[in-house]
Amino acid sequence: MKLRDVVIGANASIYYKLNFKKIKGVYYPRVEQDVLAAIAHAQQNGLTVTPKGGGSGLSGACTGGNDERIMISTLQMKEILSVSKDQGYIDVQPGITPDKINEFLTPMGLRFFVAPSSRDVATVGGVLSTDGGGNDTWINGTMRDNTIRVKMILYDGRSLTVDSKGVKSNDLGLEENLNKKGMTIHDVANSHGTLGFITELRLLIRPTVKEALMGGLTEFPDCNVLGKALQNMIEKKIKINYGEAITEAHPDVREDLKPPLHVIEFPVELESEVREIVDFRRLDSKELARMKDVRVKLPKRNPKVGIQVALFEDYGFYDTSLIKLQDGIDTINALLIEHGMTPFAKYGHGPSKWYSGDNSPTYGLILHSREIKPEGKQSQDVYDTVLAIVDICDELKVTPKPEHKWPFSDEVKKKRLEEIRAVIGRGFNPFLLSPECNDILGSMV
Ligand SMILES: Cc1cc2nc3c(=O)[nH]c(=O)nc-3n(C[C@H](O)[C@H](O)[C@H](O)COP(=O)(O)OP(=O)(O)OC[C@H]3O[C@@H](n4cnc5c(N)ncnc54)[C@H](O)[C@@H]3O)c2cc1C
Fold it and tell me: Which one of 89, 268, 367, 432 is at 20 to 30 Å from 405 when CA atoms are compared?
């Protein structure tokens, strides 16, 4: 394995200008003992630790910032340790991908229901650390909803097991302190490698059930009407297995699409309930497959002039911002144009689920965004635009990057991680919670 493959990995984020000289070692452990040895080396030499999975995280956390650090890759920790069909769990090492787990489970009629688009490269350790999920989080939840417990090694070599109720450790004092703080799996979810190194996960698995599904397409006069329809589906808790909205697409790649539109797939017996909300046109399986394909290909295509970029990646519209979806999009687009960017496409999952920093579940539309970047735009300008978007999200009551999680813009999550780190130590990915975080990330764009 090449050093660059581990350090950069599948990095599709905008943060890729790494100072390799600051990386003092890259480790590829196979078992917990190897992880302990790597962490001990870091501790003895005053280095920080960056855990690394597939490197597909988009928040910049998996780069490790600019600290003198070691990186511990999980790419050699991809064993399935045990499986219990009766009790509905699978124990795995952190470096396995959701696709590999399901390759193993499918012949047994079982499934692990967390499916980010990056499921072929993202590791379960990384997916929990970003609390990722696919376009079915509305019915299957995010990674934290599908993780029963994790084992972690801390910077001082002590270990923990964390589940939804609390913490267990051989160090009873540590266990008591963390349970007093109320630490649970919710704290590990979306912690971006700032707490410790996950060495093992127990994941929820369920039998695959064959359902008769129906596909439908609805075109809307504007995004406010689309937002209201989504809010209605959320309030009525309608089981939408697949829900993808396209709210805008550049004429060069739009083909015959008429955004704003919403493509859905749901159990046939819910047809009348869904019809009460949207007057959809039924899609046969071929048309549905084509719409899914168009949606996947949309961000992969380029305009005739210029290159499209994922400047901010995604926005979480919910409650009032969902009902005023069009107004929110117009405000965001005006800001993008002001910063010289041309809106290219917006599309995403809805109804969808994500968690906010206080661990409360949020339901809405995760809207991905692509832009055309003008030639010659400097990195600092790009990053300033990103920061301006975060401010606009705040004004609009939109969650910034709900899927790709940006902990350093979520003060509640940051405070909580600091509270726990005061007990367990601060040796993992410290740059992420430091006041300089934005400057460090900006220097890597
Ligand atoms: C093309 C593409 C599509 C994507 N689609 C989705 C999507 O549909 N849904 C979604 O939610 N995300 C998506 N993502 C984002 C990304 O795949 C997720 O954030 C993923 O969960 C990261 O997993 P990883 O193994 O690549 O982790 P990395 O990028 O390597 O690391 C992510 C974070 O986890 C930490 N970490 C990794 N392993 C451990 C460990 N063992 N212990 C402690 N901390 C650890 C790292 O330090 C870092 O902070 C996409 C990314 C790309 C490039």
Answer: 89
Residue-by-residue DSSP string for 146-165: GEEEEEEE-TTS-EEEEESS
Which atom of ligand 1 is nearest to 62's Cα? 48
- Backbone angles phi and psi of 168, in degrees to 5: -125, 140
pTM above 0.90, yes or no: yes
DSSP readout, 241-295?
SEEEEEEEE-TTT-TT--SSEEEEEEEGGGHHHHHTT--PEEE-HHHHHHHHHHH
**Same domain, yes or no: 14 and 61:** yes
Atom 2 of ligand 1, residue of closest alpha carbon: 118
- Of all protein residues, the one whose alpha carbon is nearest to atom 19 of ligand 1 is 57
Quote the ligand 1 centre to 278 CA distance (angstroms).
Answer: 35
Q: How far, in Å, is the centroid of ligand 1 from the Cα of 405?
A: 10
| Beta-sheet strand order (sheet of 23-27) | 23-27, 69-73, 48-52
> Which run of H or of E encompasses 418?
helix 411-424
Distance, CA 156 to ligand 1 centroid (Å)?
Answer: 25
Domain stops at, among 14, 49, 74: 74
Q: What is the pLDDT of residues 357-407, one digit of tens each?
A: 899 999 999 999 999 988 888 888 888 898 899 899 999 999 998 876 665
Q: Are residues 172 and 95 in the same domain?
A: yes
Rg, Å, the chain Cα set: 22
Instruction: Please report the atom of ligand 1 found closest to the CA of residue 97.
Output: 25
Angstrom distance (rounded) from CA 413 to CA 419: 10
